Amino acid sequence: MVARAYTVAFEGIEAKEVEVQCSVAPGLPAFTIVGLPDKAVSEAKERVRAALTALSIALPSKRITVNLSPADMPKEGSHFDLPIALSLLAAIDMIPTEDVAETVALGELSLDGSLVQVLGALPAAMAAAESGRALLCPDACGAEAAWVGATKVLAAKTLAEVLQHFTGQKPLTIAAPGEVHAHSKTRDFRDVKGQERAKRALEIAAAGRHHVLMIGPPGSGKSMLAARMPGILPPLTPAEALETSMIHSLSGLLDEGGISRDRPFREPHHTASMAAIVGGGRGAKPGEISLAHNGVLFMDEFPEYPRAVLETLRQPIETGEVVVARANAHVRYPCRFLLVAAANPCKCGYLSDPSRACARVPNCGDDYLGRISGPLMDRFDLRIEVPPVAYSDLNLPSNGETSASIADRIATARQVQTARFADRPDMRVNADAEGQILEDIAMPDSDGRALLAKIAERFGLSARAYHRVLRVARTIADLDAAETVQKPHIAEAVSYRLLTPVAVAAE
After folding, report:
1. Where does the chain hold its CATH 3.40.50.300 domain(s)?
2. Of the options 3.30.210.10, 3.40.50.1000, 3.40.50.1580, 3.30.230.10, the CATH number for the domain spanning 2-166
3. Most buried residue among 8, 242, 271, 311 by CB atoms closer than 10 A?
């Protein structure tokens, strides 16, 4: 007889069903696992054997073969231990085969029979719900998996509890979802003195999810401004929270099964590798751009990143997803993030400071910022200079606008965009608009069109830059509660496309 249990294998954030088949047949005693297992899966037979021995269960002196179907799909991870043990117990008639077949199981076994937490419980619960089965997982994963809500989640601490459940001695209780973590946002824009133009640009960026590049000397407040971005962003919607948590589940970043409604804020160091930023490595794990999905990716010292890493960002910025292609893996991760980049104007950082003369002006700045290619620079909707703050301004009291008041305006603008794209699931904010949709919602009035045509001709705006100006102008109009895009909105949007503010004369 062949007993069957079910589990999942992960390809990106997608959990694909795997049938675990176990056959106990006459022959020389052996325990073999086939179906493209990796080293961790191949070693499962020893963990399963030891866990069963701890329960005083002896394996039969026969040939035991476990097949992981489909056999041509790579199987990675220690979460195959529990389904292998279940299929084996069903094959030797210790638990009902029918009950095992109605469950998707995952979990790592310790040698004493206890179940160890594994990654990916949330996407596994999604896959179990789609197949109409319950999910059986370690107790430490139950609160995380229960967030799906569309399937029954059974959490056990030991293999003995699993045996008692399937034999009817002591059924497992259904796991409850974890808590919603409410992180305190202590960093406030009120702490930033001066830099009103930069604050305005970040408000626009947060309202429409527009990418922004800040250029300024060391100590001008670029990192301080970026660190306060999470305090003005609206909370994640339930769908976004689940979507983001699935990625974090695969990376082991969910704290005690709880889900946060705060948007992710990732700030990798400029020495990070391409696999760390974009994704890859063993098992093609998600990178920083995917971990920042629906949130903010802050890249300080932007020109210092390796050129290959920077150029790899170009396609994900446009498409909102990244495909990690490796010899044994080809996975797709979502990555709709708000990119906030910061850079010094030159290598020494004091290109525009008259008190610190540089012998290489202007070549110093041209060479340094030249590390950012034209196509990548063209993808920044907002480019602003962050000048140094005068010492006299530092002594002024902190009486600027608070993050809460800025967040209220952004929330109102986001609500307008949510209503605007209610019938377009592929669009959520103005940054997603394209084609005829963009033309319909962002085409300015006659004065605005005339101004935009003049600027496009004078500064040679590319087609991408033209459309990005329209998106930013639409967001500015949303912040102003304007029905149509007008000339002042176009003028302000264009001023952020240039590294130095350009005064646009009224026509």
Report:
1. 189-393
2. 3.30.230.10
3. 8
pLDDT 10s digits, 445-481: 999 999 999 988 888 888 999 999 999 999 999 999 9
> DSSP string of 113-149?
SBEE--S-HHHHHHHHHHHT-EEEEEHHHHHHHGGG-
Which among 142, 136, 40, 151 is positioned nearest to 95, based on CA atoms?
Answer: 136
Q: Rounded to 5 degrees, what are φ and ψ at 15?
A: -100, 115
CATH architecture classification, 189-393? 3-Layer(aba) Sandwich (3.40)
CA distance 192 to 396: 11
This prediction has a pTM of 0.89
Residues 6 or more apart in contact with residue 130 via CB below 8 angstroms: none
- Bridge partners of 2, per DSSP, are 23
Phi, psi of 454 (to 5 degrees): -65, -45
Q: What is the pLDDT of residues 160-200, one digit of tens each?
A: 999 999 999 999 999 999 877 766 667 889 888 888 999 99
Q: How far apart are CA 120 and CA 489, in angstroms?
A: 45
Do residues 224 and 188 lie in contact, with contact meaning Cβ atoms separated by under 8 Å?
no
> Which token pair is 76?
């990675």
